[in-house]
Amino acid sequence: MSEPFVDVPVPELEFDETIPPRPEEEVADVARSAPDRAGHGGEGLGDDVLQADSRGGGAGPTTPHGLS
């Protein structure tokens, strides 16, 4: 004969907050903490960096990003 079916409860997965975050997660959290206004990634180059005109101009109207 066969054995009767026994419904064994399966433990549910839960978020374990006792495990510290991995180093790459901490780096990603720091990188996301500062907005990247230019949208290029890197060292947080934002609108203030785009104010300089490498072509020597700069007397005309500018866009919101500081470009002529």
What do these coordinates show?
Residues 1-68 are annotated as: Disordered. There is one protein chain. This protein is an all-alpha fold. The protein contains one helix and no strands. The chain has one helix at residues 23-33. The radius of gyration is 27 Å and the shape is rod-shaped. The termini are far apart. The mean pLDDT is 67.
Give the oligomeric state. Answer: single chain
Number of strands: 0
Q: What structural class do you assign from the helix and strand content?
A: mainly alpha
Low-confidence stretches: none
Task: Output the number of helix runs.
Answer: 1
Largest sheet: none
Pattern of helices and strands: H
Shape: rod-shaped
Question: Helix fraction?
Answer: 10-25%
Strand content: under 5%
| Average of the residue pLDDT scores | 67
The Rg value, from CA coordinates, equals 27 Å
Query: How many angstroms separate the termini?
Result: 86 Å
Structural topology:
Blueprint: H1 23-33
Region (Disordered): 1-68
Brief summary of the model shown:
The chain is mainly alpha-helical and about 70 residues long. The chain is built from 1 helix and no strands. About 15% of the residues lie in helices and about 0% in strands.
Key terms for this structure?
68 residues, 16% helix, mainly alpha
